[in-house]
């Protein structure tokens, strides 16, 4: 089975609950308001959007999303994408946003790859091995001269540390090689995408976070997660877009309780959960929020 096997929204929610002990603390209050996004956004100065499930599903833009973002910017709002999409270079991401009809500037797109690179700058030199499809342009990751993890056990053994960045092409056999290598010789594991799943055209696919938690359960190695719901990516977003802003004037908009909503709440932001696409699609929202014990401030169908 490859990483592109699809997961149901109910199974994804249950999987997030199983790893809740590795995520940040409380997820905001216990009450929420159903609202129209336009009314919600009026009350904030900086709007942070998740990508998958909010602006796009896989390689398809969600209808109306690009126009909504452009209208917010035209009205004087600051906007940014805050995404756990770490598998692609910045140039690739910007080209992709243009193709999907969005007019984001480079400083309006902050990804968990940015947070990972920020962390790597403070790490000692290592022979890093990466979970990343070698057929995809490595972009900024290429400067670290990575070892691409495929099917040769020797590559897993000679690495000084591991970067879990993109799960495209990852297999259970490669996961087994990684777990075996870490059991034999524990080494640092940095996770460039903490998401367990991502909404794509064919359903929810397994992402690097899925495999990171699995290897931690199997080996006892504790990964370092860079991306939502952890703080570094939110710190980068605010620093780049509005360094002096009151966190209470920031709205985090996302489709996933355990990344977007939990992380936004931890950063002191207001949060809006999008339910029309993405991680909770087809589930009862009230039941899901209660089960997760992570409550947004607002629930909207779409932006």
From TrEMBL:
One of the record's GO cellular component terms: cytoplasm
Enzyme Commission number, as recorded: 3.-.-.-
Pfam families (UniProt xref): Hydrolase_6 (PF13344), Hydrolase_like (PF13242)
Keyword Hydrolase: yes
Matches recorded under InterPro entries: HAD-like_sf (IPR036412), HAD-SF_hydro_IIA (IPR006357), HAD_sf (IPR023214)
Gene that produces this protein: yutF
Entry keywords, A to Z: Hydrolase
Protein name in UniProt: Putative hydrolase YutF
Enzyme class: hydrolase
């Amino acid at each position: 089975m490859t990483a592109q096997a699809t997961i149901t929204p109910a199974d994804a929610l249950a999987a997030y609950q199983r790893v809740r002990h590795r995520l940040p603390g409380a997820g905001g209050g216990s009450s929420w308001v159903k609202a129209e996004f336009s009314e919600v956004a009026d009350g904030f100065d900086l709007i942070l959007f998740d990508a998958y499930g909010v602006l796009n599903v896989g390689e398809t833009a969600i209808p109306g999303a690009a126009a909504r973002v452009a209208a917010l910017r035209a009205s004087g709002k600051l906007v940014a994408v805050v995404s756990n999409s770490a598998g692609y270079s910045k140039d690739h991401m910007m080209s992709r946003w243009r193709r999907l009809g969005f007019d984001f500037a480079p400083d309006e797109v902050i990804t968990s790859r940015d947070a990972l690179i920020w962390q790597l700058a403070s790490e000692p030199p290592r022979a890093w091995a990466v979970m990343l499809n070698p057929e995809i342009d490595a972009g900024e990751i290429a400067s670290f001269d990575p070892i691409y993890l495929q099917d040769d056990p020797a590559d897993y053994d000679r690495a000084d540390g591991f970067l879990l960045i993109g799960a495209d092409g990852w297999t259970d056999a490669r996961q087994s090689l990684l777990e075996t290598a870490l059991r034999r010789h524990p080494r640092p594991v940095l996770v460039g995408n903490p998401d367990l799943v991502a909404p794509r055209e064919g359903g929810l696919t397994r992402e690097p976070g899925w495999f990171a938690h699995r290897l931690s359960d199997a080996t006892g190695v504790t990964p370092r997660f860079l991306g939502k719901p952890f703080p570094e990516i939110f710190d980068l977003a605010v620093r780049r877009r509005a360094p002096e802003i009151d966190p209470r004037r920031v709205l985090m908009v996302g489709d996933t309780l355990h990344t977007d909503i939990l992380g936004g709440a931890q950063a002191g932001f207001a949060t809006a959960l999008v339910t029309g696409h993405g991680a909770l699609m087809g589930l009862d929202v009230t039941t899901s929020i209660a089960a997760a014990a992570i409550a947004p401030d607002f629930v909207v169908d779409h932006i």
